[in-house]
Amino acid sequence: MSTEIRTPMLPESVSEATVLAWHKEVGETFRRDELLIELETEKIVLDVPAPSDGVLSEILKPSGETIYEGDVLGVWDSAGVSMGAAQATSPPEVPSKAVSEASKPIESTTETPSPEKIDSPDEKLSPAARRIASESGIDVNSVVGTGKNGRITKADMLQAVEAVDTRKPQAPSPPANTVEPEPSSPVDEVGQRSVRRTHMSRLRRTIADRLVQAQQTAALLTTFNEVDMSAVMALRKKYRDDFESKHGARLGFMSFFVKAAVESLKAIPAVNAMIDGNDIVYHDYCDVGIAVSSPRGLVVPVLRDAQAMGFSQIENQIRDFGERARTGSLKLDELSGGTFTITNGGVFGSLVSTPIVNPPQSAILGMHKIQERPVVENGQVVVRPMMYLALTYDHRIVDGREAVTFLVGIKDGLEDPSRLLLEL
To answer: Which of 96, 286, 290, 419 has fewest C-beta within 10 Å?
Structure first.
């Protein structure tokens, strides 16, 4: 019996998606709950699992095609499908590529294993993990699976890729009197220049559209200040081990910035507000977005009710966001909303920048690299760990005085962290 594969119900406020990848080809069999298709929305990737054992008989929406809720993506057939040992004797029709691979001669061994004894590495890989293994060249036998029955998941492969990248030795520099060989990669007819063209992901297109929207519709202005991080660094050093032992989280800088931002948002509510038509909407809560880098681009998961969170809650939540951003497992509702955003370009070495507001919010705080610089204190030149702060704000709703006062409040809270504990 043939059954249609339809686009599942899309998250609220999402009207369309893109077929990111099919994990089965026409003629291939699959098991129930095995990943069939990945759909990319403007914020997350949706997995479409197999509803039952079957064989894929037709693909109607190939990779890269835009789809809408309820669209028919393909057709699968359950008639005559046997997923057990009988599959070895009467396999379904498979693509020519698979046939050619299957027909290759097997190297001679002392004993030819029976089909029941074959332990294929692919059997312990999820479809997404299999694709990563193929692209990275990592030996799957060296990866420990954390899925059911030791199955290797997408997250396991991403972690393995990251581990390999950090262990790669740097190539030694050639001697000064040698000439480096020409690159072996193919070049165009000119022999010197090449061009690559890749499809812009839906996430990247959404980021581009929203940033252009912010530039075109808001009166953006940036104000700067600098903060002496000595007190925060001393506090972290003193209590870092005790904090981690008690709360199971590393005491980072971001929790201090979130707490300082919350106190400033309370004092200057216009920075925590947004424009809706001819109205200004003020929020009596602080939902703080934290910009996080992911393999698919920048995402901004939101700390809900940050004004009610302690340091350990903030640190644990941010760590969880970072881990799930790398594996692509953040949920749509975690990326929606937000009344204010913090971004940290300092982790990439940025000394100063002008971040762009995330509409419909009215402001964004930019953190930067901590760098030792000479400063004057009490008439003496001393060296202090300094960080530039940047606040980009919508001048339609936030006045310059309010923006400067907001940033000074954050500076005061960081240079005297006891103010954060006392909510001053």
So the answer is: 96
